[in-house]
Specification:
39% helix, 20% strand, 27 helices
Length: 785
């Protein structure tokens, strides 16, 4: 196209409905500001640089567009006609094409057709129009008796008859330059908006006997403008769809295109396979023959050829070349003599059991454990101390069993206060010892520190008359505090090592003894519920006490069974379609198989947790022992993703309902969607679902608890109580110092309190295991005033 054509781009408006400090045309869609798409289109149509009419934040717009355009300034935004008036001095060509900077979807082919129609018909003005079922705020096209365009009536100026017109103005015009310039100065503000309407030129040109034509476009999406965040999302979705279609035509495979987020600036080589739920942003470049698994998120990343990116890979501003080779190198490295794994444990029974499992798993994988570090060992007390003596005896017993693992053992004494900062951590490194001589080696079973020796004679922890010393009462005060009548779902969660499992088992037992039917459900992959109960617990529910059942959830197995059932149903459905169908059944079948096979990470655990819904049909309360904080929160956040996953599968199925009916798979998916909805409703009901945060009176657990409570508030999960576990009673000098430090941490925790009760439980050595000890431990829980 020659420079006979001048293009004007209107980009002066702020875009008040965007509710943003950023001018509308600089909002991004698929990685680029809206104005970029229009400027690029202008250069594709004409050799001459377009004139961009700027107004609000003109410096920002000019700085971004740069020398790709010339500029005219509209100081006051007085309408479309006024905007074009500002560019009148820069019109040197024979024809003027007028575009909007917030309409990024128009194709070059459409504009070339408009130009061709304008020249063929020798019109003074030719405009794009479209038919809409709901014309909304668009200007209506009024035609005369012969069908010629007579005028455009803006929506706010239209009468009832005119508002019923479905053909509307698309906002793109091509003028004969001479007629445009001569009539612009005749425009007036005699309308409802008090603005200079560019569309008023139609009537002027017709009055002068000039021809006005229109080209009706088939796809109204091409002229979709952006005036709100919702319209921005729609435009971005269309751009991404076009990007995916182009890449597929170039040899890229998308297993489920609608789930991929991709910027228009991304390039991908042929024979690359992109799986569902992938995000590719910025200047990301992916080579040929790659595999991009679900959940990958790349921003400004260069990926070489034949690279396999595994599920969950996240990279930004990086170069990934032959990642699979690097992964193989890492696999070899962690199994070589250059790598050392140091296993850290507490010297108590639950930690011992986890350590045996963990070291056994590492050895089975060919990974050597160089050292086992027993952390926070109790130093000798300066006088007889029930707690310290019992702890040291238990630690000696545990470490004597640890020796049987055949791993060198190092010890770190308890520091009194949690070490924070390089200097404190350096002291720990200097104090590490391989000597276990300070521990009791008698081989006698440890003496349990009695609850009376904890608090019974001496009252509350030192420095805090904040604890009630009443321990003999039944657990009614506890259960009413954390699980009042009507509670159906009770979570226990917090930082690793604070005693979640013991607390959950204690509460479950207390509720059962209150007369309710209770299921104790462990969702922590490192199950220790059976260890706390001192009995074998598996994935099948087991009665452990009157009205109390327990289960350690095998989420992976539960999801495998669900996935196998879905997969078989998909095969059955599409086998029934053999023999002809107007649908793309082979493609849909592949998409559904991939969706089922490559479910979002963590979905197995969430679907396992849906066992809660089934359990609540039999039990009155389900008490959940969760994984540590981050894992538990990710599980709760996954509910909406799971619903989206199910909805995508259902949407594909619905295409075939007239041919095959919905069938068993649709019923299963519908049931799953209902269970997810029920679970989400339950989770957000503070009268039925509650989360008890476990912590210790130390800085790091306190800080993590504060973050946990904020996250639960954001997720709309009620957290009515915080249980501060392992509070130190007065005894030896060290215990008294610890009590004073804990009292200070309790004061800081109390300052962060927002409507939740604070409960306390004493340190007990050895840790309580079995129903009798858990029952006794529960009687020590008190409210901290």
């Amino acid at each position: 196209m020659s420079d006979e054509l001048q293009i004007i781009i209107m980009a002066a408006g702020l875009g008040t409905r965007m509710k943003s400090r950023t001018v509308k045309v600089l909002h991004r869609a698929a990685g680029r500001p809206l104005i970029d798409y229009v400027v690029d289109l202008a250069h594709e149509i004409s050799d001459a640089a377009p004139v961009v009419v700027v107004g609000h934040q003109r410096e920002a717009v000019q700085q971004h567009v740069g020398d790709r355009a010339r500029y005219a300034v509209q100081e006051q935004q007085l309408g479309t006609g006024h905007a074009v008036q500002q560019a009148i001095d820069q019109i040197k060509a024979k024809e003027v094409l007028i575009l909007s900077g917030d309409v990024p979807l128009t194709r070059a082919e459409t504009l070339l057709r408009l130009i061709e129609e304008h020249r063929r018909s020798r019109n003074a003005l030719t405009l794009l129009t479209m038919n809409l079922g709901d014309p909304g705020l668009y200007g209506r096209i009024v035609r005369d008796a012969k069908g010629a365009v007579e005028r455009i009536v803006e929506a706010k100026d239209a009468n009832e008859q005119q508002r019923a017109i479905r053909e509307v103005n698309a906002g793109i015009y091509i003028f004969d330059a001479g007629h445009l310039v001569s009539n612009l100065k005749k425009l007036s503000t005699n309308n409802a908006q008090g603005e200079y309407y560019l569309t008023d030129l139609i009537g002027m040109l017709r009055d002068d006997g000039k021809r006005v034509g229109a080209l009706l476009i088939e796809d109204p999406v091409e002229v979709l403008g952006v005036n709100s965040r919702s319209e921005l999302a729609t435009v971005e979705g269309e751009i991404q769809r076009r990007v995916v279609e182009r890449l597929m035509s170039e040899g890229v495979t998308f297993r489920n295109p609608s789930t991929v987020v991709i910027d228009s600036t991304v390039s991908i080589g042929p024979d690359t396979v992109v799986y569902p739920f992938v995000t590719l942003e910025g200047t990301t470049r992916i080579g040929t023959g790659c595999v991009i698994e679900p959940g990958v998120h790349l921003q400004n990343v260069a990926v070489g050829n034949d690279v396999h990116l595994k599920t969950g890979t996240v990279a930004e501003d990086a170069v990934i070349d032959e990642l699979s080779a690097r992964a193989s190198a890492l696999h070899a490295l962690v199994r070589s003599s250059a790598a050392e794994f140091h296993w850290v444990m507490l010297a108590d029974q639950l930690s011992l059991l986890e350590t045996r499992d963990g070291i056994g798993t590492l050895r089975a994988a060919g990974i050597r454990v160089a050292e086992l570090i027993a952390n926070r060992l109790t130093p000798p007390p300066d006088r007889r101390c029930g707690l310290c003596d019992a702890r040291r005896a238990e630690e000696a017993r545990v470490l004597s069993e640890v020796r049987q693992l055949g791993v060198p053992i190092a010890t770190v004494a308890d520091q009194g206060a949690e070490p924070r900062g390089l200097r404190a951590l350096g002291r720990i490194a200097a104090q590490r010892s391989r000597s276990l001589g300070h521990l009791t080696k008698s081989g006698k079973p440890p003496r349990r520190s009695s609850l009376e020796s904890h608090w019974g004679h001496e009252g509350a922890p030192s420095g805090a008359a904040i604890m009630s010393p009443t321990f003999s009462a039944p657990l009614g005060h506890l259960t009413k505090e954390i699980a009042p009548a009507g509670t159906r779902l009770l979570f226990f969660g917090g930082k690793g090592g604070v005693g979640k499992t013991t607390a959950a088992a204690t509460a479950g037992l207390a509720l059962a003894e209150r007369g309710q039917r209770v299921l104790l459900l462990s969702t922590d992959p490192a199950h220790s519920l059976g260890d706390a109960l001192r009995m074998e617990i598996g994935d099948e529910e087991r009665e452990v006490a009157p009205r109390l059942r327990a289960r350690e959830l095998d989420a992976a197995q539960a999801f495998r069974a669900r996935r196998d059932r879905y997969r078989a149903a998909v095969d059955q459905l599409f086998e029934a379609l053999r023999g002809g169908s107007s649908f793309d059944a082979p493609y849909d079948r592949l998409v559904m198989q991939d969706l089922i096979e490559l479910a979002p990470p963590g979905l197995d655990e969430l679907f396992g947790l849906l066992a809660v819904i089934d359990a609540l049909r039999r039990e009155e309360v389900v008490v959940v022992d969760t994984a540590p904080t981050g894992h538990a929160l990710r599980l709760l956040e996954l509910v909406s993703t799971a619903r989206e996953w199910v909805q995508v599968l259902l949407q594909i199925l619905l295409k075939y309902r007239r041919v095959t009916g919905l069938g068993q798979l649709a019923k299963d998916l519908t049931d799953t969607a209902r269970e997810l909805r029920e679970f989400e409703e339950l989770l957000h009901d503070p009268l039925r679902a509650r989360f008890v945060a476990l912590t210790r009176a130390a800085a790091l657990p306190r800080l993590e608890t504060t973050r946990l409570l904020k996250a639960l508030k954001r997720l709309r999960v009620a957290a009515p109580a915080v249980l501060v576990n392992a509070l130190t009673p007065p005894g030896c000098s060290r215990c008294k110092r610890a009590g004073r430090d804990e009292a200070r941490e309790l004061t800081l925790l109390r300052k962060a309190r927002r409507g939740w009760a604070m409960l306390g439980a004493p340190a007990v050595a050895p840790g309580p295991r079995g129903l009798d000890e858990l029952r006794e431990f529960g009687r020590t829980w008190t409210r901290i005033e």
